[in-house]
Batch of 2 targets.
Target 1
Amino acid sequence: MHIALGSDHAGFSIKEWIREYLLQQGHDILDMGTERDDIKTDYPDFAFLVASEVAEGNVDRGILVCGSGIGMSIAANKITGAYAALVWDKDTAILSRAHNNSNILCIGGRKLKPEEVIEILELWLKTEFQGGRHLKRFEKIAARERALCLSIEGDGPGETVIFHHPLIQHKVSMIRDKNTSVKEFRELVAEISGLMVYEITRKLPLENIEVETPIAKTEAYALSGKKLAIVPVLRAGLGMVDGILQLIPNAKVGHIGLYRDPQTLEPVEYYCKLPGDIGEREILVIDPMLATGGSASAAISLVKKKGAKKVSLVCLIAAPEGVKKVHSEHPEVNIYAAALDDHLNDHAYIVPGLGDAGDRLFGTK
Ligand code: PRP
Ligand code: URA
C-alpha cells in the first residue's frame, strides 16, 4: 500500500517507528515530516499535507500522529475527502474501517505503547469497509461535505454542487410557490442567480495592481486575464442574466436558442450567437431548469464546438436524470444548482420543481 505519514514533534518518535515497521512490511511510504522532535511544530501543517495527499488520491491511506491524536483528526477532517479517525485500541481500529471507511488513521503518540500501535496498524490496514447500511451513512457524510466544501472552497471537474446557503434556499422555496407573482418570480430568479455566481466565482484568479487612494498608494487586486462569459439558454435562461451581470458587469453574454420539443422532448436549436473569444473565457451556460438534460447537454455541446474550453452549467433546479445525462455526455463539466429535486413526471417536468420556468418568468401561461 502507498501510505502518507506525518506527525508533529510530540508524535515524531512513534511516527519514525511506524515508518520503519511499515517499510519492513513492504509498504511504500511518503514521509511528510516532521523531521525531529526537539523543535516544536504545529500539527495542522502535517495533517493538511497528509490529508491532501489522501484526498487527491496520490496515496491509498494516511497515518497521523500527535500527542493525543485529537488535533490531527480535527485538522485532517477539514480537507474535503479526508475521513480521519482517532483510534486508540483494536476495536476502534476495526470499527473505523469497517463502519466508517476511514482513510486516515490518527493516533496519540503519547498515549500508546509501540506494541499497541502495531496491533492497531495491522487491523486498520487489513480491515475492509463493510458497505451495506454503513455505505448509506458514509454517502450522507460525503454528499454533505461536497455540498458544503465545494461551495466554500472550489471544486474538481465533473462535480455537481448544490448550494445550501440559507439565502438561496429561502428564495428557492419562494420561486417554487405557485402563488408567487411573475414580478416576484423574476426578481427572485435574478437574486438566486447572483448569489450562486458569487459562490461559483470564488476561485477566479486575481492579479496584483497598484491603486492610489486619497491617502496613499497601495497594493490591491484585480481579476486577471479574460474573464467570464455567460450563455443563457433561451428563453428561461434570460431570467438569470441580470442577476449575474449585476455582480460581473463586464461578462460577455452569448445566447443559445433551444426549445424542448413537447412530443419528442428533444432539444431543437433555433439561435446561436456567442462571443468571438469564447475559447479564452470561462463559460457559464445558464438555464433555470435541468430536467432530462437534453437542452443543457445540447447547449454545452454547441459552446464546446464553437471553441469553449472551460464550461460549467448553472441551473436553479436540477433533476437526477438531467445531472446524469450532462455528466455522462460532458464528464468535465461542473453542474451548479440551488436544488436537486426528486424525479421527472410523465411529461418530463421536474417534481416538485417549480413548473414551467419560461412561462413563470414571462407570464406566458
Ligand atoms: C425549459 C428549460 C430548459 C429545458 C429543460 O425550456 O428552460 O431549457 O426546458 O428541459 P430538458 O432538461 O428536458 O431539456 P423550454 O424548452 O420549456 O423552453 P423555454 O425556455 O422557451 O420555455
Ligand atoms: N422545463 C421547465 O421549465 N420545467 C420543468 O420542470 C422541466 C422543463
Note: Residues 260 and 267 are 4 Å apart (CA to CA).
Target 2
Amino acid sequence: QGIVSLQQINKYYGNFHALKDISLEIAQGEVVAILGPSGSGKSTLIRCINYLEPYEQGDIYVDRIRVQPGPELIEVRKDVGMVFQSFNLFPNMTVLENITLGPIRVRGMSREQAEDRAKELLEKVGIAEQMHKYPGALSGGQQQRVGIARALANEPRVLLFDEPTSALDPEMVGEVLDVIKTLADTGVTMLLVTHEMGFARHVADRIIFMEAGQVVEEGAPELIFSKP
Ligand code: ADP
Ligand code: ADP
C-alpha cells in the first residue's frame, strides 16, 4: 500500500456524482500532478485525502491510517499539509503567528521551539524579512509562500496543493513554482492540482488526468505528453 491509498472512492454532492470509483496508490516521495478541466473533481479528490470533504464509499489511507472522522483524523492531519488556491491565511495574525499556530496546537511545541522552526521555514521560502507583517501587507506570491511554510510547519509526510498559483498575478507564479520545485526535490510526497502544464511535465513523476469525476489517463509525463 502506498503512503496515500485511495480505494474505490465515490463522492456525491447531493445527487451529483463528483468522484466515480477512484482508486490510486501514491508512493512515498512521489510527486503527482492532477490535471483536467474545471469541475472534473480534482479539488474534491485531494480534499477527501485529509477529510476536508467527506466521502461516502470506499477507503482512503494515509500512512496506513484510515481517513475517517474520529481521533485518527488528528493523526492524519499532522501527516498531511495543504496549500490552498486563496492562501487561507489568518488575516489578523502575523506571518510568524500563522506558521506557529499549528505546531503549538497540534504538535504541542513550545512557542520558542515553534518560532525557531517557523523562522527556518520562512528562510527556506525566502520571506524571513516579512515575518512580523500581516498577510494583507504581502503580495500574493509572498502570501502563498507563507501558505507553503505553514503547510510544512507540522512536518507532514504528504503535501496537497490545490491550484496554488491560480489566484496569483502572472509575475508571481514563477517564485511560487520555484519553491514547490525545491520541495519536490527534497523527497516529500506531493499531490498537486494545477493548470501549469509545463511545470507538471517537468516536475511530476506521474500525471493524472481527470474528467467528469473519473481518472481517464495516468502515467509518466513523457508518456502522457507524447500522445498525439
Ligand atoms: P475541479 O477542482 O476539477 O475544478 P471540483 O472538485 O471543485 O472540480 O468540483 C467538481 C464538481 O463538483 C463540480 O461540478 C462542482 O460544481 C461540484 N461541487 C464542488 N463542490 C461542491 C459543493 N460543495 N456542493 C455541490 N457541488 C459541488
Ligand atoms: P489577485 O487575486 O487580485 O491577483 P493577489 O493574489 O496578487 O491578488 O493578492 C492577494 C491579496 O494581496 C489581495 O487582497 C491584494 O490586494 C493583496 N496584494 C497583492 N499584492 C500586494 C502588494 N504588493 N502590496 C499589498 N497588498 C498586495
Note: The beta strands are 4-13, 16-26, 31-35, 57-62, 65-66, 80-83, 158-162, 189-193, 206-211, 214-219.
